[in-house]
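Figure 2 data, in text form.
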Amino acid sequence: MENTTAYRLYLAAGKNPPEGSIVGDFKKRGDDGFLCEIYLNDDEVFKSGCVDVTTTVFNDRAAIYVTTGMLEALQQDGEVERFELWHELGHIASGHYDTGVVDDGSAPDAERLLREEMEADSFSADSVGRDAALNALKEMLKVRAQVDKRLNLNGTEASVKAIRELRARIDNIKNR
């Protein structure tokens, strides 16, 4: 996996950009052909089943879509949001193009998907720092537990699996 110092993040500072506009990009040092633009697109994020950010890889470029709330938090140096953004770039840099969605009704390869999440976490931690990565993952775990409690999902298979995966991701960063 490449070191994140090979990448630079450029983010728009303006307030209230129009939906669908480019609000930033990642540049890769020494690779003028690398293109990863960041778009403000709430609909694209929600359509993918995500809350703050999602990534799409095309033949010639990658796109990261962020919500209005995510962009505002990034512009205010939100630690969790910055971790999430670099995490998405980690998926791109690592070649994680398969979403794990299986058309034939069989279960996705959960072990591979968790390994890829950990790889993207490590990539992000190289950029934002180990402590910031741990804080972000712990905050994500806290929010997940609060949402599951509010929605009365505690103890369900999906809740238990998601919390175990977040704990494994935290342990992975702790043990680096």
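Caption note: Residues 130-150 form the longest helix (21 residues).
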